[in-house]
Design brief:
homodimer, 321 residues, mainly alpha, Farnesyl Diphosphate Synthase, two-stranded antiparallel sheet, globular, prenyltransferase activity (chains A, B), metal ion binding (chains A, B), Polyprenyl_synt_CS (chains A, B)
Chain lengths: 321, 321
Amino acid sequence: MDRLSALLTEDLTAVDAIIHQYLASPVGTIPNLAAHLIDAGGKRIRPLITLAAARLLGGGGDGPRKLAAAVEFIHSATLLHDDVVDVSSMRRGKKSANVVWGNSASVLVGDFLFARSFNLMVETGDIQVLDILARAASVIAEGEVMQLAAANDAETTRERYMAIIAAKTAALFAAAGKSGAVAAGRAGPEAIALETYGRELGLAFQLVDDALDYGGASATMGKNAGDDFREGKVTLPVIFARDAGDDSERVFWRRVVGGERTDDDFHRAVALVKRHNAIALTLDAARAHADAARNALKGLPANAYREALEALPEFVVERAY
Amino acid sequence: MDRLSALLTEDLTAVDAIIHQYLASPVGTIPNLAAHLIDAGGKRIRPLITLAAARLLGGGGDGPRKLAAAVEFIHSATLLHDDVVDVSSMRRGKKSANVVWGNSASVLVGDFLFARSFNLMVETGDIQVLDILARAASVIAEGEVMQLAAANDAETTRERYMAIIAAKTAALFAAAGKSGAVAAGRAGPEAIALETYGRELGLAFQLVDDALDYGGASATMGKNAGDDFREGKVTLPVIFARDAGDDSERVFWRRVVGGERTDDDFHRAVALVKRHNAIALTLDAARAHADAARNALKGLPANAYREALEALPEFVVERAY
């Protein structure tokens, strides 16, 4: 990640400038609320993928920067709406925008960011890029609705869980990679390779996130641990623990996923997840997707951008340790 | 309106088919929630403008239909989000989607519709059309945030009110007209004329809506009368009444806009609006914009589409009587 950021310092600075330029509005709430989120130190992993994909394939100029800003705008819009949907109160170590400005402002500023992302794409003049990101935006929204429908459903299968994270998370990573390649004028096999890279990396990323919500490999609870549990979300650690558990454990999972949950319940959930090795199994799955991401780059030009992209999946998985 | 619908029956049927095709999703909540809104008998005034603008200028084929469906999708997305923001419980004579499916589903399905509108625009292959509608989408979101910031502000000026409705309502009408012209290959003065037509018609439309919220010209209360009052929105009838009122009336307006409001307060508000002739003044303003809309069409080819578009502003204003 640091390697990629270092390679792309100039691009990233330009992307941040574009972001602030497109946040400008005479309606003060818009830049204030949006900057509260966007300047709070997000990792910019999605725009980095777009930029690296384009630069790896020799794509020059300002197009990839606008595209990277558009990708970050779509991501930011979904975060604003997610926090409303999940009734979250913290994001990136700060009070979330819905707590500071209210749900209504978060919904509407999310809409603004979403619209702005399309303004930016239009400016690239590349309708193929618009196609890729507009499709991704539909799929993301579908994934979010799927997740909403699955919340509190203790019987959620691994298959369904994977379909949800493929849509809500991996689709934008995939589009970030693919659109970077297309912006570099390489819409053929290179675009497919970078789409696959993004999708697999996105799956690994979400699996790691979901493992961290139960403490990660070290079972050390980070500041957001337990969020999924409290929201009745069934993630892969829960699925592994539930499927390996005995009858009384399955009764426990049905109760806590479907109904009321206490802090004591969360501690029991973490213990069960640990007992059944469910974090390790989840991280094995993450590692498999991380490997698939790295492998997808094999046929591409060997240069510093490819090397940095190759190192990223390992970095993503290491977050869990 | 009937005239326009009659002229465009075939197109409208095709647009409805496109809408349902693009609502399809394996995630059942999406088509169910969206169809609840879209099939509830909206007037389709925005897609009619797009279709008529394109046909008036000789634009053929499927492009204008996809574009008209995209316009209706943007409108529908904003309605879903509006009802969440305004905590509405009724829409088009039915329970609103947020009441039936919850706020979260309404936010996310709104996002889906918004994304789908861009999918449709991409399919037209016309980046100019994408530019027009993406800009309109930004402006709409700005208008909604402006309105949110102005809510409960009893000092809202006429200027500010006009800026809000120009953004939240008239921008999409303007884009509907302009994009129809562009889809017909007439991006020059014809597009400007139809953009002006749409903007002015949209202003008239919103002014009439706001007059109806205080009973319209006949002061007969329709089923949604009082919504703006209950939400602390300062619309033109209130601005006229407030500015013509004495000190005690201004104290009343400050209290009811800024704070708690009872049904009795609404009856007094209606009485004040009536006493100061504020509905008639609002409808005069609506009529001026309706006239400007009609006048904008003067240089365009004289045909049945133009005639039907010319008749529409009068129809819009007549709703208030």
